UniProtKB/TrEMBL annotation:
GO terms for biological process: L-histidine catabolic process to glutamate and formamide; L-histidine catabolic process to glutamate and formate. It comes from Psychrobacillus vulpis. SUPFAM superfamilies: Composite domain of metallo-dependent hydrolases (SSF51338), Metallo-dependent hydrolases (SSF51556). Catalyzes the hydrolytic cleavage of the carbon-nitrogen bond in imidazolone-5-propanoate to yield N-formimidoyl-L-glutamate. It is the third step in the universal histidine degradation pathway. The lineage of its organism: Bacteria, Bacillati, Bacillota, Bacilli, Bacillales. 4-imidazolone-5-propanoate binds at residues 92, 157, 190. This is Imidazolonepropionase.
Amino acid sequence: MNVETKVKTTVDLVIYNAAETITCVGEGMTEIGVIENAWIAIKDDKIVGVGPEEEITNKFDLEKSVSINATGKVVAPGFVDCHTHLVFNGSRVEEYAAKLSGNVDENLEELGITTGPNRTIELTRHASEEELFQQAKKRMLSMLDYGITTIESKSGYGLTTESEIKILEVGRRLGKETPVDVLNTFLGAHGIPNGMSKSEYIEILIKEMIPEVGERKLAEFCDAWCDEGYFTAEESKQILQAGLQYGMKSKLHADAYSYIGGSDLAVEMNMVSVDHLNFTPVEVMEKLAKSEVTGVLMPALDFAVGHKQPFEARRMLDLGMNIALATDLCPACYTESMQFVINLACRLYKFTVEEAIKAATFGGARALDLDDRGIIQTGKLADLQIWDIPTYKHIAYELGTNIVETVIKDGKVVVSR
Ligand SMILES: [Zn+2]
């Protein structure tokens, strides 16, 4: 008898029998594609198969692969944190603690506590690249423990060519020397440096800083702070257009403390993302919903600063906007946990659990213009996390628990708790 033997593909890693696999594949923000008892086969850095046991064992040779038993657990894509200010020196803990007991900026000045971004800029300018690297690395490895496998990192605490480049170089080094993928955003337009007029600074941004960052290929994105007291929509447009000339895609901090047309500009320029959106009018949400632009919402920042105008997430989701959730890790919002962000999004902003998970994975990837991650599907990067919970809904229910047991980045186990 002539038995045809099919040669099976060998794989490096197999995750088997997960109670639920959250693929995040599907239409809209609510469809998260839950598969029960799935097996996932991984070769090199890619997912090569997702399906029932029989399908995977028939197709692949699992003999020599490492296997992870996920019985009773949940497998999800790694979180993609699309908005952080990861690289900075020191902290603003004194300011935060003093404000908790009712102090405002003026009292703090009298107490000798320097406040706001200027404090961080001062500290960051004077730190060495190595100091910045070590501090950011510690934060980033903690974020990896919380399931974050891709991070966007903004400059913007230097505001001089030299110090902005130093921050971006640290971002590049973090990407090389840790398992996490780091995408850099040039945010020289985070504020206006002391002792300089805004027009002088814009000139430096456009003629000196952006060309330098661009030629050194130090950033994937260019960003600006469009708000009252910062940059107007017209100024933001000039800055972002200069970035585009050097291949940096546009992002924007908009409508965080006032509405001056930032979100409209995001639609007009078809930006990758527009972030904050506390003061965005409904008419602009409707325009955003018809566009490809992703709205990035950051519940932890609003929580940390006690924001007076909560963003209207429910309305944005109901209108059908592309939404991402991000930590906004920065000296004013010190969280390394996307799970905490999900807790807040569900409880305070009426996200469904499904929407929150999708916004923190698929949504984050879309806000970084990445289509190779954020979902569990054959051909995508094997960036995965295993949660030690019986069903995915526990992620919203367990407040402050780190539910992550295992993190896999590029097909390798990088966290095992
Ligand atoms: Zn920000």
